[in-house]
Amino acid sequence: MAEESVNWVLMVTAQTPTNIAVIKYWGKRDETLILPVNDSISVTLDPDHLCTTTTVAVSPSFDHDRMWLNAKEISLSGGRFQNCLREIRNCACDFEDKQKGIKIEKKDWEKLHVHIASYNNFPTAAGLASSAAGFACLVFSLAKLMNLREDQSQLSAIARQGSGSACRSLFGGFVKWIMGKDERGSDSLAVQLADEEHWNDLVIIIAVVSSRQKETSSTSGMRESVETSLLLQHRAKEVVPKRIVQMEEAIKNRDFSSFAQLACADSNQFHAVCLDTSPPIFYMNDTSHRIISYVEKWNRSEGSPQVAYTFDAGPNAVMIARNRKVATQLLQRLLFFFPPNPDTDLNSYVLGDKSILHDAG
Ligand code: ADP
Ligand code: DP6
Ligand code: CO
């Protein structure tokens, strides 16, 4: 490092959207490396809607690694943060900015400390995949800062070690997380199935039923399911492999009926696994159930699916309408049947194509 100028700060800011699984990841075969028991498929939201913005900085004047999440300092001592930081530092490359007199050699990155400030523009730990956008953004911004040469799939394998679902947020459009076979995790990574433009008729609407932090984190929920649910074993071995093939086909052919049928069934089976866990885990609430019944009834009355629904590990509904016309109807009906709650601090708002409703819950 150039000794004469020790006051410099190098900084990178990145923004990463969240992703919502349509074939769910639930269960690890390796807790430390975060290796899943089945493949999963997700859709990444538009970057300007539900997203994380992270700024990472490095300077010789920083004396330890620090992180702020939503303006509150959090500890980086957890294994997941440490694993991501270690992997990124291992892959870091030489960096030079002649104008500023900054020269960092590969070995110097080990000694330089980082400061990380991250902000989620949507509820954290409420079942809208904040860990996905959060760790994807962390890895992406650190990789830019430390001049990594790895491609997106290789970076996804690092983000996976922060939070499994994060590996899929390194890509836009439809993304598959391949579970892999290698017990060291080298082949457990994300690949893009189709880009953002492939099926742009679809409109995603998110109804925030509750923005409160969930009682059981995804990590501990899936650990308990792996330990106690027989349905999880059956799902991972017998059900998901077939659904993955069918879902890839549905996405390729823009076959909304199959897509919706698979996404809804998979969400329901994931929540059935949660109920099959001992003690049972309840992520959905009455409002979530009413939304499911409502969409099911609507789809039946139309003779074919118009809207797909899926719920991650929380009560919030993600609905995918087959086109803009259906999305407009869906929004109107949701606002009528599930009016925004004036008692909460949240208002309903519409964001371009992707809408968010805050509902009474
Ligand atoms: P969610 O359903 O929101 O993904 P999880 O239980 O999977 O909930 O994960 C929540 C955890 O993810 C948080 O407690 C925090 O540790 C981590 N997380 C959330 N946002 C970020 C972020 N922007 N950067 C780093 N980690 C984050
Ligand atoms: C229901 O990726 O949040 O959203 O790997 O322990 O961090 P960790 O869990 P996380 O789990 C996501 C579970 C899910 C389904 C999915 O996103 O595939
Ligand atoms: Co998560």
The distinct ligands, each listed once, are: adenosine-5'-diphosphate, ligand DP6, cobalt (II) ion
Q: Percent of residues in beta strands?
A: 15-25%
Multimer state? single chain
- The tally of strands reads 18
Low-confidence stretches: 344-355, 357-361
Main sheet properties:
5 strands, mixed
Helical residue percent? 25-40%
Distance between the termini: 55 Å
Q: Rg, please? A: 21 Å
Element string (H = helix, E = strand): EEEEEEEEHEEEHHEEEHHHHEEHEE
Structural class assignment: alpha+beta
Average of pLDDT? 91
Q: Strand sequence of the main sheet, in spatial order?
A: 1-6-11-7-8
Q: Count the helices. How many?
A: 8
Protein described:
With 361 residues, the protein is an alpha+beta fold. The chain has helices at 79-91, 130-145, 152-159, 218-228, 230-252, 256-276, 286-302, 324-337; strands at 10-17, 19-23, 28-30, 35-36, 40-44, 51-59, 66-69, 72-74, 95-97, 102-104, 113-120, 174-178, 189-194, 203-208, 307-310, 317-321, 349-351, 354-358. The protein has a 5-stranded mixed β-sheet with strand order 1-6-11-7-8, with helices on one face. Strands 15-16-14-18-17 form a 5-stranded mixed β-sheet. Strand 15 and strand 16 (317-321) form a beta hairpin. Helix 2 crosses helix 3 (152-159) and helix 5 runs antiparallel to helix 6 (256-276). It is globular. The chain starts with 9 loop residues before the first strand and ends with a strand. The structure holds adenosine-5'-diphosphate, ligand DP6 and cobalt (II) ion (CO).
